[in-house]
Amino acid sequence: MPPTVSLDPEQLACRIKQWGQELGFQQIGISDTDLHQAESHLQNWLDQDFHGEMHYMAAHGLKRSRPELLQEGTRSIISARMDYLPEPSARSQTLLADPAAAFVSRYALGRDYHKLLRNRLQKLADNIAAAIGPFGYRAFVDSAPVLEKAIAEKAGLGWIGKHSNLINRRAGSWFFLGEIYTDLELPADQAASNHCGLCRACIDICPTQAIVGPYQVDARRCVSYLTIELHGPIPEDLRPLLGNRIYGCDDCQLACPWNRFAKLSAEADFRPRQRLDNATLLELFAWDEAEFLQKTEGSAIRRIGHQRWLRNIATALGNGRPDPDVLAALNRRLHQVSDLVAEHIHWALRRLTGA
């Protein structure tokens, strides 16, 4: 597409940020490609096996920390964030205190964010091309080996907190990230400074003590890893610590004092679907596979499959009260599930009955 205006790099960067906000992003920043500090931190994390079964974190050589190896010709990275919080955080606290309720991480209550953000990033790239003509780029939303949080930190969108999430002084941490790797030479923004100070709220609140030190998360103990990434049985010593969390965990974000500045998302696609924001464990445990696939269509939850969904809910039921309806539901499921799920059902029944 032929260029319609002449823009110097500074002007183009300003336009990119303006277009990003018009497309629904709350903030756009620009970074260079030097991620050597993040590369060292990643390697140290991998050396301690904190990634567990997430073998993709160790794959791809240095492409994750050296953008030009992933996308040849990359000279600048456009980093974008979009708020997703669908409801006040007090609602989450209420659900976590109710053992009969099912808690799903707030990011997964609505439509899968990958397609939405990728479409918006594509529109942003289209705007750039309309202004300057064809250029080299590639957009990412958790779709390739990209150190998105380190990039966003360099681009000034926030700092990486002690829980390893990105925190923004004016918006907390309830947001998604996406990137455009580009061959354009754009002026980099100033990197964000760290404002965690002496606070350790996220470390202290973690139900499984997965934050083994500031800025060090042992994923093998993390509830999000155990309920989403882990394919096999959840370690027995950790099961009681999961409470009623069946898909992900938000405790470290709920405890972060910076999230008092978080704003509710205006995106309709991030609103809760299928009553996942107030469903009971028994309701969700009753879904057969066809119902699970139908009700999780377009949702990030579908990726774990029906069997791990049941595995997680059986564990949560075992952490609740020995209600007759719960015991009956667990026993009904026993002969309809895989050995993996059956093992967690037996564990739940033993906990609830003392047998």
TrEMBL record:
Cofactor(s) demanded: [4Fe-4S] cluster; cob(II)alamin
InterPro entries, sorted: 4Fe4S_Fe-S-bd, 4Fe4S_Fe_S_CS, QueG, QueG_DUF1730
An example of a Gene Ontology cellular component annotation for this protein is:
cytoplasm
Q: Where does cob(II)alamin bind?
A: R64, D142, L166, L177, S224, C249, D250
Active site per UniProt: D142 (proton donor)
| Name under which the protein is recorded | Epoxyqueuosine reductase
In short, the EC number is 1.17.99.6
Free-text function comment from the UniProt entry: Catalyzes the conversion of epoxyqueuosine (oQ) to queuosine (Q), which is a hypermodified base found in the wobble positions of tRNA(Asp), tRNA(Asn), tRNA(His) and tRNA(Tyr).
Annotated keywords: 4Fe-4S, Cobalamin, Cobalt, Cytoplasm, Iron, Iron-sulfur, Metal-binding, Oxidoreductase, Queuosine biosynthesis, tRNA processing
Specify the enzyme's EC class, one word. oxidoreductase
Q: What is its main location?
A: cytoplasm
Q: Tell me the Pfam families matching this sequence.
A: Fer4_16, QueG_DUF1730
A Gene Ontology biological process annotation? tRNA queuosine(34) biosynthetic process
Q: Which GO terms describe its molecular function?
A: 4 iron, 4 sulfur cluster binding; cobalamin binding; epoxyqueuosine reductase activity; metal ion binding
What do we know about how this protein assembles, alone or with others? Answer: Monomer.
Gene3D superfamilies referenced in this protein's UniProt entry, alphabetically: 3.30.70.20
| Protein's UniProt keywords contain NADP | no
Task: Give the catalysed reaction(s), semicolon-separated.
Answer: epoxyqueuosine(34) in tRNA + AH2 = queuosine(34) in tRNA + A + H2O
Name of the gene this protein is made from: queG
Query: Which HAMAP family does this chain map to?
Result: QueG
Which positions in this protein are listed as binding [4Fe-4S] cluster 2?
A: C206, C222, C249, C252
